[in-house]
Amino acid sequence: MATLADVARRAGVSPATASRIISGSTKLVTDELRARVLRAVDELQYVPNAHAQLLARAQRTAVGVIVHDVSDPYFAEITRGLQQVATQHGRLVIICNSYRDPARELEYVELLRAQQVAAIVLAGSGYHDAAFTKALKGKLAAYTRTGGRVSVIGRHELPGDAVMPANEEGGYLAGVELFGGGHRKVGVIAGPRVLTTTTDRLAGLRRAAREFGRTLPARRIAYAGFDRDGGAEATAALLDSSPDLTAIVALNDSMAVGALTTLRERDIAVPGGISLIGFDDMPIARDVTPPLTTVRLPLTEMGARAMSLALDTDGDAARIEPAPATLIRRASSQPLTS
């Protein structure tokens, strides 16, 4: 395989000159030199090292995105929006899955900094972990001092621009739908305790409960992973401990799908026996039976806005853009009739 040095020797120029011409540098060279180098590239079938070119360019062309798991429908929709904007700006997107492992997130920030990406987007939830947050702040500060930009999605105690989904308001809307419809015994399938997303959605449900003179006791909250299996297991635990529930709120739609499975296995009709509400309005929410009542967040738009903020170099002050929540009524919930 031909090397840059081989091309330079064939063209009769220095390796530095050959590199500038091949990489499309704006530094002026004569047409005759350019033609010799490009002819040598053709003759030797030289393939430039993309990684080396990336590091050599003054304009950083790649952006890094850290998500919890891109196979999760929530993050798949956000990533779609991120990539749409990145493509419009001619940027390569490097996607890193942390699988909700804080140590891995720290490693990815360090790796992306070493790759000299133009921006880093943290698309996952924030953590209730002071030591991790302090370490992450330090790594991001070192990155931004080199000219990198940072944006986040969700509630984080971090520097940079942010897109803030209305998680607390969404939880409130779900609570109003159920408590306002006469339900008193409502169970909650919550995500991991360490995530700010879980805390904020629960806070909205509790606000609605207070407003209607209801309670949301700890025994009616089951914490689990933000996925289908977690939802199925948490639903079983709730039904075993509180068999008189009339409604369940799942704090994301994947968990709600798992809840539907458990309810069907136990011959509990939805919504006749138990009303069920999800969260996020993922594409699958309208396709399950019955279609899910859920809280919609503009997931693709959130990703697009986060990438736009990351690539917009105007201004030094951190910007916060809200992403509203909307209740979408479908067939999985109804007011309590007795």
Automatic annotation (TrEMBL):
Domain HTH lacI-type residues, every copy: 2-57
Position of the signal peptide: none
GO molecular function terms noted in the UniProt entry: DNA binding
Keywords tagged on the record: DNA-binding, Transcription, Transcription regulation
InterPro entries for the chain: HTH_LacI (IPR000843), LacI/GalR-like_sensor (IPR046335), Lambda_DNA-bd_dom_sf (IPR010982), Peripla_BP_I (IPR028082)
Superkingdom per UniProt: Bacteria
Keyword NAD in annotation: no
Pfam families in the record: LacI, Peripla_BP_3
Record flagged with keyword Transcription regulation: yes
PANTHER family, alphabetized: LACI-RELATED TRANSCRIPTIONAL REPRESSOR, LACTOSE OPERON REPRESSOR
Protein name, entry field: LacI family DNA-binding transcriptional regulator
Lineage: Bacteria, Bacillati, Actinomycetota, Actinomycetes, Micromonosporales
